[in-house]
Amino acid sequence: MNITETKLIPVFETSNRSYRRKVKSRIYIWPEGETILQNLENRRSRPLKLFRQVAADALAKLEVDTSKLEIKWSQKAGCSCGCSPGFVVDGWNAKLSGHDLHVTFNCD
Prior knowledge:
- By secondary structure, the protein is an alpha+beta fold.
- Helices cover 23% and strands 31% of the residues.
- It is globular.
- The relative contact order is 0.35.
């Protein structure tokens, strides 16, 4: 498994979660080369064990101390309808604060 890209994106640029209040960061995992149709078909059947490892590796790559963070999978991480599953980060970290982490990976 190779992480090909990591992006920290400010929450206010990507979602309606920027109500000028403290929000939890999200980690979204994107398999490289997955088409939009495949993404729609696979949203409710993701390989969570693999995705957890990808998230952990990405956080390590960014040198994020995860000892005080709790990272939980949520089918409704980005939207209440379930269209944007990901990990919700509970706890505070300076690098993640106010940002969502988008990670692209492949299994080559």
